């Protein structure tokens, strides 16, 4: 069958034939891939820049792809033929309590594997076999945007964890919701947009910041979802007030964190999600004193697991009804698998999510 | 203006003219009512059977109605003209910590008031004025079914509380979700249907029980949402296995609770939501011993507040996409306000939710 | 070696020689027993009345004893020779998540075993071998009362669970503690005394009720710990106000529960700990309605595990300092092992805790 | 009456007469001070170095002292004459939800006041009047060391918050306790010692690090409480393994944080408690990436409130029994009030806690 293959640490990607027996499978449910999504991680791997990318043991190549939709080809347990499913992309170590409880996002051994990224063949291939435990059902009616559930799952986990951690204080407002809480999202790429939608769905006030004027599409999106846009090219000082949540959804250098920390409110949370690609940040002794005095929490956030994929499916369904103009804009391009190498090597302007169609 | 008026403890209901000054208002946002929903509580009041119904101080009549949709008539704060809104129906005592934190569902003084039920004029009138704190925005796209958000809010609170209470044990399954947990819903009326939808949306396995064969509509609904139906006319012994959640969504006599308690699993939760109208139940010493040994929790559940109304709006949006056949069946009849007294006095066969249109 | 042996379901108990090879051991740490405690369960087994008592597979006799202190005889891991230890008495099923996480108190298969009670030889013998995982270190300085840590562990778990479950509401008072919360403890036996001490240590107001005048010892204890005593011979109506916690620490018939339920406050918790030996209770439809409206929680409570044994050791240490008169009164008699059959067959007046000395 | 008085921002301290009417009082319970504790904050104020120190409005001098024991002089509510009490030193803003719920440690307005530090007269005076809400009862039997409850209260809050935040993951070990979790405490001063005792009491493994060999007293203390000591003069690389908790209990420069962050385990928590007095730290992009990937939490920690003072009293009672050699060593000197200016100006070698006796 055809598969999209990379050699980790080397530049390049190709669509080539692989034998069912030489690629990894993970269970007994046959899944025919219908779509893959492309994200920044895929492109970093293709550029040979992602140092943590690793082929499965014993060979130097890897099937790419961690965002996928497929159809079940043979009935199995609760799955019927033609059910549309999405695979969970990180698989646990099988040893630590977090992984045993289905929460490989908090694996404690570091021995988890990630489809299409490290130690595990990905989903950019005609079909593969999986364990039902890792397959998430896609509701009819959102199949056009369901590919977004993979990146969204990471954000579901992140926002859930922020809310859970804030149980350390009285954080709900006098109407019992989060309507008085202000969130600042750094970055207006796909991650910035999705996390803004999620925070709005949890009733937060949301301001999205980027170091430029918003595009027309961004303008329309943030208007529909009720978020504000802020051009941070000249810093954040014109943003009035403090923030209860600051979520770094950008790949800006670490200095952005240095710049925004003073804007955290008492008991505020800084979510570290985006990966800075280079550089460093500084914190003075006064700033460290203030972190203590203000009772701030800084959280490292990564990965979503099955419960988060399921929540992502629910939010995408909800958003199709409440924010139809926005959900219509999120898939900016769909290409045939033979064009995949091209879109994997180059990001278009205004791209939000590109998907590959098999 | 016209209003639907009752005299608590007396039988009867009438549509009559009331003066804006003689009825209660609660704030500065003018809301024109467009729809009211009718539920069992309204009919009990109309029949003069609800002993806890009470008129506002100083008079013997009460504007009925605790389920309502309205449109904002004058801009106010975050509300724009023509925004569709639903009012929160229970208002806090203003004294206890739960009410001060926006959670009058757990009022500790008992001095809360309830629109159209006790000490507070209801929403079955042409217009009224409210405090924005108690108004919930209705997303475009679900206006046809949004009236269900009021009863659903009570269930959102109930299911949230069950899940919160179960943090006392390891209750998520090995995939991190509730997919291995079995819930039994007693009753297949509107409450039974809505709570089944909610439990399915939280990944529970759901069996709905009633003491008769399902109607055709019920059959279609439970099939779409993936719940099982069980005819309990001959008891529950043919139901295999135990239940992690048993939710009483019926108005069956207390003996139903006596009958189902033995079916609770270790660490199981029994949610007491429905109101038995008469009768009593017995528990033997052996059954009480088993409640201890099995670590069971029995929870009294009532009322939802603003966060639960907002979640209800989100679930209704989600369900329109994922279960369109079901959401299409939930409003079984819409009548003009002049017909309200008739529908308030008589429940049709197969009725799920009837609404009054102004 | 000598052991105290029973034949489950038959009346009787004897001190007899058993061979190390014919009794069960559970690990590699050799523990020489120095003391055993006696409780109502032991006496029920000796009377042949406890239907759930069961010998280990393949024989009809069981070594009795679930309350024990021992000394380590050979160094092992963190244990040094002469360390005083107490064994955890319930051991998990090895299958369900709760047991795998060290919380056999919430075992979901029911396949746990209990030392000296069901399927597992107890600790009334000269020595045995155990797994360090189940051994709890006893601090020097409380060895005289440490035998109480076993019954206290069950109550540590119970009170922790009550507090955890109440996270469903705003339950702490305006000073951040539980000082405004009122607890009613039914029963003034050893369990009633220990749970009262525990609730006082969590800052609750405590009233202990029994159907008679307090003994002189009880008077002194409740005065020192700051609890009130109430003679409930004529019912509870003279107790003013409602209770946020009602804890059944008695073996009174189920009607006591019927009688006290109306005294639960809004959001109150009823803890079912004590085992009624016979009889039944009734609940009317009105009372069931009130449970819902008042948001009450009823919790079945049993068993403590290692974290609770450790907390019990900490509380006993604390209490020796803060309530020395009370801790001095809790061990009412110490007998030699040869007298064990006698004290196992008969409970003295004013007994709180009797222990057997090897 | 006599009082110990400072002029914030100026160097110096004096014992002088003040009039009852010119100093602040806070309620109706008359408290005669018997002891004050001295800590680094007091000395910083005396040196004129603490920029956040502020006199009450309208004057330039402040009564010093936030650690105090007193006796009640007139009966009031639950307080009897001669009850020994300790005042809570931070008082809330009266506006935000956290303060209204008795948790001024998480005040959101920043308008709280602190006795003897900012905007509120302290407790180094012969007597004052307070609100019972802010008075904590001191158990007989720990009066000699109870002054430690004030600094300990800050640590009770800190450790509670760390444990609460970690509910985001499966963090208890397979025996249900924290026995498998490793904590690194930076600093072996009074704060380092107290937090190590606290972490040991929660069953953590504890290593205390300082950049020198331990003193003889430290050696004895860490041996009794079962903590390890590590000389970090040459860095932390010889410490094997990673840490689940790293608690900064030192006033080392920020580079210490830079150095220890790589030693955080997956899901680890870094508690920022100590105040670095100068300098800055750097974090590289790789380290920030690792914080995300490892799911780390960094918490700013400060201040304890009434529930934490009460827990501190309980732990001090427990520790007197379990670690008597250690509790005997913690008060290193007691001086008469007239000598206070001298001890406030100079810290002796080997000092742990100095107290002033009235």
TrEMBL record, chains A, B, C, D:
Gene Ontology molecular function: any one: glucose 1-dehydrogenase (NADP+) activity
Cofactors: Zn(2+)
Residue ranges of every copy of the Alcohol dehydrogenase-like N-terminal domain listed in the record: 27-140
Residues binding substrate, per UniProt: 41, 89, 114, 150, 154, 303
CDD domains linked: glucose_DH (cd08230)
Reaction(s) this enzyme catalyzes, per UniProt: D-glucose + NADP(+) = D-glucono-1,5-lactone + NADPH + H(+); D-glucose + NAD(+) = D-glucono-1,5-lactone + NADH + H(+)
Keyword NADP carried by entry: yes
Biological function: Catalyzes the NAD(P)(+)-dependent oxidation of D-glucose to D-gluconate via gluconolactone. Can utilize both NAD(+) and NADP(+) as electron acceptor. Is involved in the degradation of glucose through a non-phosphorylative variant of the Entner-Doudoroff pathway.
HAMAP family documented for this protein: Glucose_DH
Name this protein carries in UniProt: Glucose 1-dehydrogenase
Name of the gene: gdh
């Amino acid at each position: 069958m055809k598969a999209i293959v990379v050699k980790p640490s080397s530049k390049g990607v190709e669509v080539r034939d692989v034998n069912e027996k030489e690629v990894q499978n993970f269970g007994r449910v046959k899944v025919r891939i219908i779509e893959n999504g492309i994200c920044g991680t895929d492109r970093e791997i293709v550029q040979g820049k992602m140092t943590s990318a690793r082929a499965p043991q014993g060979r130097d190549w890897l099937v790419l792809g961690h965002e996928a939709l497929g159809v079940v080809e043979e009935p199995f347990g609760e799955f019927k033929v033609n059910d549309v499913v999405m695979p969970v992309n990180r698989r646990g170590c099988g040893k630590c309590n977090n992984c045993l409880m289905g929460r490989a996002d908090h694996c404690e051994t570091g021995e988890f594997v990630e489809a299409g990224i490290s130690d595990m063949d990905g989903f950019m291939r005609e079909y593969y076999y999986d364990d039902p435990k890792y397959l998430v059902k896609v509701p009819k009616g959102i199949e056009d945007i369901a590919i977004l559930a993979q990146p969204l799952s990471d954000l579901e986990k992140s926002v859930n964890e922020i809310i859970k951690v804030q149980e350390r204080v009285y954080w709900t407002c006098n109407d019992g919701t989060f309507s008085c809480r202000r969130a600042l999202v750094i970055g207006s790429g796909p991650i910035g947009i999705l996390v803004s939608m999620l925070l709005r769905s949890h009733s937060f006030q949301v301001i999205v910041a980027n170091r430029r004027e918003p595009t027309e599409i961004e303008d329309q999106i943030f208007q529909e979802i009720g978020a504000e846009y802020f051009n941070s090219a000249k810093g954040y000082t014109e943003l009035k007030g403090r923030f209860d949540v600051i979520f770094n959804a950008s790949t800006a250098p670490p200095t952005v964190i240095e710049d925004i920390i003073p804007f955290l409110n008492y008991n505020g949370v800084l979510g570290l999600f985006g990966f800075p690609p280079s550089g460093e940040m500084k914190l003075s002794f006064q700033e460290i004193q203030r972190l203590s005095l203000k009772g701030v929490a800084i959280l490292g956030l990564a990965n979503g697991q099955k419960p988060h994929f399921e929540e992502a499916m629910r939010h995408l369904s909800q958003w199709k009804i409440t924010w139809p103009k926005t959900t219509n804009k999120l898939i900016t391009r769909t290409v045939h698998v033979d064009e995949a190498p091209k879109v994997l090597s180059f990001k278009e302007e205004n791209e939000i999510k590109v998907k590959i169609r098999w």
